Automatic annotation (TrEMBL):
Signal peptide: none annotated. Belongs to the UDP-glycosyltransferase family. The keyword S-adenosyl-L-methionine does not apply. Residues 13-134 form the Glycosyltransferase N-terminal domain. This is UDP-glucuronosyl/UDP-glucosyltransferase. The keyword Transferase applies. It comes from the Eukaryota. It comes from Artemisia annua (Sweet wormwood). PROSITE patterns: UDPGT.
Amino acid sequence: MDSKQENKPHALCMPAPVQGHINPMLKLAKILHSKGFDITFVDTEFNHQRLLRSRGCDSLHGLPSFRFETIPDGLPTPENLDATQDIPSLAKSMDEECLDSFKSVIAKVNVTYSPVTCIVSDFLMGFTLAAAKEFNIPEFLLWTSGAGSLICFDQYPILLEKGLMPIKAPVQGHINPMLKLAKILHSKGFDITFVNTEFNHQRLLRSRGSDSLRGLPSFRFETIPDGLPTPENLDATQDIPSLAKSMDEECLDSFKSVIAKVNVTYSPVTCIVSDFLMGFTLAAAKEFNIPEFLLWTSGAGSLICFDQYPILLEKGLMPIKDQSFIVNGYLDTVLDFVPTMSGIRLKDIPPFIRYSNPGDEYMTHFFMLQFERAKSASAIIFNTCDKLDGDVLDAVSSRYPPCYGIGPLNLLENKIVDETLASLKSNLWKEDSECLSWLDTKAPSSVIYVNFGSITVMTPQQLVEFGWGLAKSNYSFLWIIRPDLVIGESSVLPAELIKETNDRGLLASWCPQEQVLKHPSIGGFLTHSGWNSTIESILSGVPMISWPFFGDQQPNCWVCCNKWGVAMEIDNDVKSDEVRKLVVELMNGEKGNEMRKNVTDLKKKAEEACTSPLGSSMVNLEKIIHLMNASSST
């Protein structure tokens, strides 16, 4: 076949099928492509279709050397094709069902294009390591969050052991960084096959338009089923434990099929880049003898915390004995054994290990499984930089494969990705860009931006408390309220509150967040502390109020508040008066001004890492490229 290039390095990139993991993986793929790699970006079929709907049918038509492949995620197609998939079900399905499909993609790519020389996988897509081993291909893992979050995830075993612990995992927040990483790899010369779940792929298509996933001939999308039934609301967030279970158990075969298909149809897959949570991909990498790189899409500190799970269990600190332990002060227990996280409390550890919600026990052991699998990856990639998380990355590297911070991926993407791929986006909801015109009418630093991300849910009372707190602050606000933000009810604010804030409040269902945060009228960000939101806020020089919901958000919040001094935490039992006080302090108080100075300093450090030729992220990117190239030549 004419398109086959035997001597060219070829990276197969596999993100976790969620927004915040896809973005950095796509960025990395584009960076690798710019360094001479062919890229095959493997996405689940569901997410691939979502991207096509979101961006248009031509949006994923890349270059001949940057292509997309898909594998099924093992879940049934929901009725609402734009709904966020249930994370536990998706994770389980991907881990158990996707390896074979992933290996098939490798086999297909090897035959059709140049052989896959390395796999770059999200840290959570550990099944890809099995494929890398089978195909004798090195695999590099991308940790898409902050390095500190990895350390926190690593505490899960300890929390369980101590009886201190056993909440849900993001989707949108994983897809975003993986897509960014893929675009970066593509810009470095890689062909890309981006594999998404069918459910998320369809959501992207609906959100962005039928042409949105048409990239370049060398940047293509493939999908795999996630194994879950199709929900009635196709835009609803999927249940995280169910999704994790379904993906882990059901997606391997579909993933291997994608590899086989890509190998036959395009150039062979030379590496897999998988989300850290998609550990089933490691089995495909092993089977196809392809190296795999894992992408950790959250903060590095959260990985450290997740990594404590076995220790917490061993020490009997977790799970909690009953629900009273959530409110009796027990979770304020300080942990003295978490590397680089001095003073961190049980409440700051990712809360699955508390076993306080259905599915938590499964999710705890799911994360422990992914961490064990990750040890066979070629490397772990993080969406952070050494100046922000160098101590955490060193700590993680002492227990796992080499760790490389090449972020913030937003900056690398903007610096090196060509315009053709820059338009590829991964939002699973349609963006309301009219809010930017509204912001144009506001004074500098006068608006508080409120967005709790793609997964967070709250009670009707919490919604009202936030609303009245914003109203009483007397500041203008832009508030993103998803249709499924409120548990079991419509996300509607009281009429009197709407009337009270009509002249200074704007509500929208989704927005172009990076543009919003960079708007000069934004003076603060009320956030859930998802890693993508955290990084975007730092890069915009915007201090934060944090209301973490689950997963990596607790350790991300702790890092922002305690290590970096760029955020203030709001109590989970939110009250309007506390919201008012924190908003006023954030926007014009002494602590708010101090946080604004701190976040400006962090912004400069992050920019130096990605814009200077000798910046740590630029240097680490070249190291990753070298590893992938070395893998492709052996």
